[in-house]
């Protein structure tokens, strides 16, 4: 019960609910004013204009939000006018409708925010079919009032942002901490349990993708805030929490070790890994609790259990050494020590987040230069050339746009032929649920149909029980507010609430509403069927054939990240910014690869060609970036020795192998200037360095010098981690090159 109450409290304090309130206020206020003044006919276009332009209001910089809503307002006005003027001329209307559907949906090439503007344009086109205006003056008045509605919504949105200036940022930070906590707990399970590792790795891909999406939104929101006037102390505090969250995410990535080695060394000694597992679990739960505190403004949770768990993890290293004794215990002890170092750093970052949330003065000092911060922002290109580049059949968005326009033309023609009462409901269903991928379209169609049926049953039941117009108006508004609040979290229940709202609106203005509602249910089912069938049979875009460009980007990003790590090893002070930028690009690239793999799993089984091969490639990329992150994190946290010739040689060998995989995909070639034998010799020398340090340590122990100084410990850690991780990276790169070659031979040749 307490958990449900807490979840309700978090929901009502969330930015999602705040967004629902914004939409509700933007719709209710003009409706109430015009209705009270007796100008009900003027209220509808203003309310419609506000409703159509709400999708572009998403978290991010104020400038981009304002631009999106203004562009959306102009686009919806233009499309509404075009449809209303061409409606009397059926051939011209069909041509116009197909052209608008195609080109407006193609605007999605400019990114997620542009896709929301595109949706507003498509929505305006569909709703225009429901508007009964024929004269030029009536059409112009309708369009002008819709423009007023769009500007009114922008005003309401900006007003809410002034009243609650940090709501979106806090929600994004809260979501990031919550997802990072879940991610840390999941990776803990991978450490010990060998059961269901593949299934957990797939969940791992999904969480990575979600976390990277939150990071991108936070970069846009926080790093672009107040560029000219400077950041406020509260914004500095948020930025500090964000930077710590990114560091924790990298540490979780870097903490991934070679599970085969872990399983081999700790095969019969898993109890020595349990304290590390318990610590990760506690830190994950602590991050989740901090995410809740950030929205609830409650006191911070106690940190004592984390400190005790960290002490137990450290004590385990001593216990392991006492049980196995040196030198047999050395390799396992170094693994435990490296793992402990990652966890200690993670706890330090959690402490930094706690200090920022607790308003400690020193916590607001962030040493990130403004010109450097801007380099972490992902720039969006808005050139016309980007659309022209996508006017080809191998473009996923081109296929989607063409598919959508054909499906809508077919649906409209079907409605005309069978004289369906409200054909625009079929069109509305198509634009709402149809997505470039078949799996997401199918999932949304099921949710839409179920939501519509449930919502219709609930609303009709209420209408039959009572005949109170005021109650209908109130319930319509309340259900719409909750629908917009839930639309990103639970589409099925959002569809339920939207249907309920529509039923009550019709009941308010039309005494024969129940006759209309039955057609809505039927039309929704028709639209969903058309969308799914079109996605499956009309220029289908199966994810297995769309992976090529994503794989190319991931290979390039991982190679750049590897070379940036090499530069960091050579000169940490001068190359840390370049390393961080390369890390960001690599994490984003792997996130896009993970997202593509998730879409692949939603395709029909018959279309998931070479699924195991693709899963292997995604896992290899994931493991590769984790191994690089592990080396990079060690370099940034320790005083290292100068990079050896052998280190540079192996890095070049790995880089060339990745380039070889890249060449196969891009059908180019490069001369591999690091021979296999030379690379093996270099790896052998690195391993020998570790062996020499280990033997020297053994000699000291025999002489009675059992105390281990920090310098020797770090030297052993460095030699062990660098030699083993580079050997691991060589193996990963070789396997990735082989898998990529198989992908070329078995899949790309079928295109």
UniProtKB/TrEMBL annotation:
Residue spans crossing the bilayer: 27-54, 66-83, 89-107, 137-164, 448-464, 470-486, 493-509, 521-539
Domain named Integral membrane bound transporter: residues: 411-533
Major location category of this protein: membrane
Keywords: Cell membrane, Membrane, Transmembrane, Transmembrane helix
Localization in the cell: Cell membrane
Residue ranges of domain Integral membrane protein YccS N-terminal in the record: 74-327
GO cellular component labels: plasma membrane
Membrane topology: Multi-pass membrane protein
Entry-linked InterPro entries: Memb_transporter_dom, YccS_N
The keyword Cell membrane is assigned to this record: yes
Classification via PANTHER family: MULTIDRUG RESISTANCE PROTEIN MDTO, P-HYDROXYBENZOIC ACID EFFLUX PUMP SUBUNIT-RELATED
Family: Belongs to the YccS/YhfK family.
Entry protein name: Uncharacterized protein
């Amino acid at each position: 019960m307490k958990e449900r109450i807490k979840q309700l409290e978090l929901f009502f304090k969330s930015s999602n609910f705040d967004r629902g309130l914004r939409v509700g206020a933007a719709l209710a206020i003009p409706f109430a004013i015009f209705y009270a003044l007796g100008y009900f006919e003027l209220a509808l276009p203003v309310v419609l204009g506000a409703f159509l332009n709400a999708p572009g209001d998403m978290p991010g910089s104020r400038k981009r939000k304002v631009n999106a809503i203004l562009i959306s307002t102009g686009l919806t006005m233009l499309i509404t006018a075009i449809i209303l003027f061409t409606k009397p001329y059926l051939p011209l209307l069909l041509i116009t409708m197909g052209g608008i559907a195609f080109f407006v949906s193609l605007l999605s090439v400019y990114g997620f925010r542009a896709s929301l503007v595109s949706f507003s344009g498509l929505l305006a086109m569909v709703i225009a079919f429901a508007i009964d205006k024929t004269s030029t003056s009536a059409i112009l008045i309708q369009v002008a009032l819709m423009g007023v509605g769009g500007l009114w919504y922008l005003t309401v949105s900006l007003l809410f942002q002034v009243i609650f200036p940090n709501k979106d940022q806090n929600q994004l930070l809260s979501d990031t901490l919550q997802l990072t906590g879940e991610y840390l707990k999941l990776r803990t399970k991978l450490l010990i349990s060998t059961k269901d590792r593949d299934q957990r790795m797939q969940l791992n891909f999904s969480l990575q993708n979600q976390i990277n999406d939150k990071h991108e939104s936070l970069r846009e929101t926080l790093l672009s805030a107040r560029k000219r006037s400077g950041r406020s102390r509260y914004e500095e505090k948020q930025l500090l929490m964000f930077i710590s969250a990114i560091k924790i995410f990298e540490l979780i990535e870097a903490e991934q070790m070679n599970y085969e080695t872990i399983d081999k060394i700790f095969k019969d000694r898993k109890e020595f890994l349990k304290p590390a597992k318990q610590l990760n679990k506690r830190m994950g739960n602590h991050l989740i609790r901090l995410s809740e505190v950030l929205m609830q403004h409650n006191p911070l949770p106690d940190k004592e259990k984390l400190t005790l768990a960290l002490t137990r993890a450290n004590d385990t290293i001593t216990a392991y050494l006492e049980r196995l004794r040196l030198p047999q215990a050395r390799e396992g002890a170094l693994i435990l020590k490296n793992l402990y170092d990652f966890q200690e750093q993670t706890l330090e970052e959690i402490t930094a987040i706690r200090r920022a949330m607790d308003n400690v003065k020193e916590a607001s000092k962030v040493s990130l230069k403004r010109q450097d911060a801007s380099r972490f922002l992902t720039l969006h290109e808005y050139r016309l050339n980007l659309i022209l580049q996508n006017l080809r059949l191998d473009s996923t968005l081109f296929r989607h746009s063409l598919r959508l326009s054909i499906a809508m033309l077919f649906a409209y023609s079907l409605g005309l032929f069978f004289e369906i009462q409200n054909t625009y409901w079929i069109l509305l269903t198509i634009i709402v649920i149809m997505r470039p991928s078949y799996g997401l379209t199918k999932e949304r169609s099921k949710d839409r149909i179920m939501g519509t049926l449930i919502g219709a049953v609930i609303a009709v039941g209420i209408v039959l029980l009572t005949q109170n117009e005021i109650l209908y108006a109130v319930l319509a508004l309340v259900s719409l507010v909750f629908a917009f609040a839930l639309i990103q979290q639970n589409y099925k229940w959002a569809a339920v609430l939207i249907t309920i709202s529509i039923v009550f609106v019709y009941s308010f203005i039309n005494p024969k509403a129940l006759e209309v509602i039955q057609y809505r249910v039927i039309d929704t089912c028709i639209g969903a069927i058309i969308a799914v069938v079109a996605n499956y049979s009309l220029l289908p875009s199966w994810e297995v054939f769309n992976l090529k460009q994503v794989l190319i980007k991931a290979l390039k990003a991982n190679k750049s990240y590897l070379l940036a790590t090499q530069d960091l090893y050579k000169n940490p002070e001068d190359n840390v910014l370049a390393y961080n930028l390369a890390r960001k690009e690599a994490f984003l690239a792997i996130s896009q690869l993970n997202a593509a793999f998730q879409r692949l799993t939603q395709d029909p089984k018959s279309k998931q060609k070479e699924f195991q091969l693709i899963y292997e490639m995604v896992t290899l990329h994931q493991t590769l970036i984790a191994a690089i992150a592990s080396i990079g994190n060690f370099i940034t946290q320790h005083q290292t020795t100068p990079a050896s010739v052998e280190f540079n040689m192996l890095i070049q060998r790995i880089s060339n192998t990745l380039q070889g995989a890249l060449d196969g995909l891009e059908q180019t070639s490069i001369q591999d200037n690091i021979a296999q034998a030379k690379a093996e010799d270099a790896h052998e020398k690195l391993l020998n360095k570790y062996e020499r340090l280990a033997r020297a340590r053994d000699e000291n122990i025999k002489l009675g010098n059992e105390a281990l100084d920090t310098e020797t410990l770090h030297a052993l850690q460095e030699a062990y981690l660098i030699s083993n991780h580079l050997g691991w990276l060589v193996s990963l790169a070789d396997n990735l090159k082989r898998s990529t070659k198989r992908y070329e031979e078995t899949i790309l040749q079928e295109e």
